[in-house]
Amino acid sequence: MRERLSTVLESSDRRNPSETLKRSKRVAALEPNFQEAGLGIRKNHAAFVGAAATLALALTGCAGGGGAATGGKTTLSFLVDNADATVAAAQELAKEFTAANPDIVVDVQTRPGGSDGDNAVKTKLATGDMADVFLYNSGSLFQQISPEQNLVAVTDQPYMSGVSDSFKPVVTVNGQAYGVPFGSGMAGGVLYNKKVYSKLGLSVPKTWADFIANSQKIKDSGVTPIIQSYKDTWTSQLFVLGDFANVAKSEPNFAADYTANKAKYATDTAAIKGFQHQEEAAKASLFNKDFASATYAQGLDMLANGDGAQYPMLTMGLAGIQASNPDKLNDIGFFPLPGDSATSNVATVWLPGGVYIPKSSKHVSEAEKFQAFIASKEGCDAQTKAAGVTGPYLVKDCTLPSDAPAAVQDMLPFFNDPAKNSPALEFLSPVKGPSLEQFTVLVGTQQADAQKAAQLYDEDIKKQAQQLNLPGWN
Amino acid sequence: MTVNQTSPTVSPPRQEAAAPPSGKPLARKAKKSAYPYWFYLPAAAIYAALFLLPTFASFIFSFTRWTIFDATFIGFGNFIQFFQEPALVTGLRNTIVYAAVTSVLKVVLGMLCGILLTSNIIARGFLRSVLFFPVLLSTIGVGIMFSVLMDPTKGLINQVLGVVGIQGPAWLADPAWALLSVALVDVWKGVGLATVIYIAGIVSIPQEFFEAARVDGAGSLKTFWNITMPLARPATTTVIILSLIGGLRSFDLIWAMTQGGPGFASDVIASVIYKQYQAGFYGLSTAGNVVLFLIVTAVILPLSILLNRKEVEQ
Q1: What SS3 string covers B289-300?
Q2: Model pTM score
């Protein structure tokens, strides 16, 4: 399954038994802000249970594609993924945009998330059936929809000057930018329970050795040190993906070498660390007993209730906790996955998805107005109002509310200082192997060691690079 | 049927029951059809547009690196890559294990249930319905239901086993059990159909054989081996072929329950192909489908010929 980590969010109603069923099939409501924030972490699909509804929505979407002018008003179709939070944010944006521009009506349409959504987007672009504006991942997945062929470049639009410089590269191909950010950034590291930490007198670990030492103490106290949830396969990738900032700090050229087929996970001593750390934690039995069958939702529950102390996860997990255990939200903190050295304590960050205009749109100028609205302070505020806040926005004028959750406060210092973070690899390279989550499950369940998994992943990467026709891979 | 009725004799019905697809239908085929051939046209057009054309296109696309936006011809590159796929060996082995386990269990259990449900037991009709019921359920629904029931700690199955003092395995989460667990669910769902086929086969065996055997002093075991087993052979053939084809291209249940996991422990060829498709490797996954098509044909065609020939020889 190759969905993005970011699209998966916890369903809000946890006590309803039918929700439990759905959740087990990974129907996760999305965090508003992290919509498809590309974050190449692939998660499992929207549930089969939800599929019927999704399909119905998607079909409606097809029928309405293209937009139409009615009574002097222009209707702009806007295709987003079907996560609850994304839809809420998109509808609030549409409503406030129409209030400011009375002659343009925005019709929000939905598509499935994850790889089904990828295929839907590619098909719609290939057949010229895409909505007037649409939301899709930035970074490596964005590269796969042939932007130069399919999208309207907006590099010179005045509103692009308001977009954060750290976001522009992930929606740019050959010097042309194509999108504006939707939602907020997030970090991938460890979400931890502050109450457990303070009860045991632990401090936030700065090195991997400290992290293991803390985990042993937590284990001795009878609490699960590290939460893993392999029923939702995508959650297994954080040890590797979240470690990338450490790789980038020790080998600044890794991303370029990796894209050029010169650096490999299996042979690079820094890159393989993520796999090795996961193997070490598995061998030391630091995981919850039901790690192989637990779901993402159960993992977040365990963390919120203090049954588990640390969960390697994206900060979008906060949205899940906000939905299921709102009173526990401020018990949760964040620290980056530690590397070998305490001096380089850096976080891996994920950038949000972008909103793009396809060349097939008949309302390009109206669509650009809508992009401008999304990339404005009013746009950010509309999203915050609809879906809460789980990280910083990538629009220069936007600010976070003062009551942002504790873990968001923890991640801000890393986010604000470029020396203390690195974007995840998928934002620095067009290549991301689709099967990483299976390999990290192999390591976590001890069916393969770190070396073997890294080799398998290198093979997986090769397929992706060849598919993209990159130089140096054939 | 009308042909038979014109020349009624005492013995023919029982021969027919034992070997229905004998020479007669073939002989009749030579007669000129009462309808003109262009009556076939609408069906042929639909068949060509919805089946032949896509099938042919997929053979072409399997030789390209295909991104939906464009396709580059790469010869046998996809096939080479497909056979180098690390998950393929596991997938191939799992596919065969899955097909074998499900067909054997369906034959054995189907025959036993068939015999039980043709004998004079209480509530026979009710039991037949109960046994057939799972066949009517949606496969995805069954998969979701069982993945809840098979949860290692909170699942009903392990809780019940725990009450009687057995520590159940982690069914779907344990790599050693995952494939077998899904196969068992497949059997639970499919055994009703096998039973119905056996019931039909067993009922069509003339009672005289059983009476004669009883007179000769045969016990029930002997009757089973020498009468029921051989005369229910057409049913066995049908069940084996249906469940083998189903097993070889099984996908929905596996996808609903494990998605090929944990890791690759329950991956079958179809799920390997689906994952490639999801990853956007359209050419590669099309090549995989061509390979799967060839494998299924290579297994089923000779098997079907073999089983049918033996049947005629009888």
Answers
A1: HHHHHHHHHHHH
A2: 0.78
Q: d(Cα B299, Cα B306) in Å, to the nearest integer?
A: 11
Residue A112, SS3 per DSSP: coil
- Cα distance from B241 to chain A (closest Cα, Å)? 29
- DSSP state, A339? B
Which H/E stretch holds residue A403?
A: none
User: Is A454 in contact with A273 (CB distance < 8 Å)?
Assistant: no
CB B285 within 8 A of CB B276: yes
Q: Tell me the three state secondary structure of residue A176.
A: strand
Residue of A nearest to B276 (CA): A434
Complex-level ipTM beyond the 0.90 threshold? no
Nearest Cα neighbor of A349 from A432, A408, A264 is: A408
What's the rounded Cα separation, in Å, for the pair A472 and B181? 44
Place of tokens 């009883």: B214
Structure token pair of residue A31: 């965090």
Place of tokens 């696309």: B61
Tell me if B173 and A25 make a contact (CB, 8 A cut-off): no
Cβ contacts of A101 within 8 Å, gap of 6 or more: A369, A373
Q: Which of B84, B174, B275 sits opposite A435 (nearest CB)?
A: B275
- What distances in angstroms separate CA A435 from CA A170, A317, A416, A452, B274, one per listed residue? 22, 22, 32, 14, 12
pLDDT by residue (tens digit) across B250-308? 899 999 998 887 888 899 988 988 988 888 888 889 998 888 888 888 888 888 888 77
- The string of DSSP codes covering A3-49 is --GGG----S--S-HHHHHHHHTT--PPPSTTTT-------PPPPHH
Say whether A119 and B263 touch across the interface (CB within 8 A). Answer: no
Bond into A181 cis (ω within 30): no
Contact A85, A31 (CB under 8 A): yes
Q: Is A206 helix (H, G, I), strand (E, B) or coil?
A: coil
What does the block give as tokens for A82?
A: 């079907």
- Rounded to whole angstroms, what are the CA distances from B226 to A369, B18, B187, B221, B223? 83, 14, 27, 9, 5
Contact B192, B109 (CB under 8 A): no
Give me Rg for the CA atoms of chain A: 21
Helix/strand/coil for B264 = coil
Looking at CA atoms only, how far is residue A38 from chain B in angstroms?
A: 14
Give the CA dihedral A139, A140, A146, A147, nearest 10 degrees. 10
Strands B64-66 and B71-73: what pairing?
antiparallel
Alpha carbons B4 and B9: distance in angstroms, whole number: 9
- Helices (H) and strands (E) counted in chain A, each on its own, are 20, 14
Long-range interactions of B27-36: CB distance < 8 A, separation 24+: B28/B3
Residue A72: the pLDDT is 72
Q: Phi then psi for A73, rounded to 5 degrees?
A: -100, 145
**For residue B30, what pLDDT is reported?**
56
Terminal alpha carbon distance of chain B: 22
Q: Is A222 left (phi over 0), alpha (psi -120 to 50) or beta?
A: left
Q: What's the half-sphere exposure (Cβ side, CA atoms, 13 Å) at A301?
A: 15
**Torsion-angle region of residue B215: left (phi > 0), alpha (psi -120 to 50) or beta?**
alpha
| Other residues' Cβ atoms within 10 Å of the Cβ of residue B213 | 16
Beta strands in A325-393, from DSSP E residues, in sequence order? 332-335, 347-350, 353-356
* pLDDT above 90 (res A158): yes
CA dist A141 and A188 (Å) reads 18
Instruction: Give me A335's structure tokens.
Output: 């620290």
A230, B173: Cβ pair inside 8 Å? Answer: yes
B301: phi then psi, degrees, rounded to nearest 5:
-60, -55
Q: Report percent pLDDT > 70 for chain A.
A: 85
Please tell me the distance in Å from B127's CA to the nearest CA on chain A.
29
The amino acid at B141: G
Instruction: Classify A191 as helix, strand or coil.
Output: strand
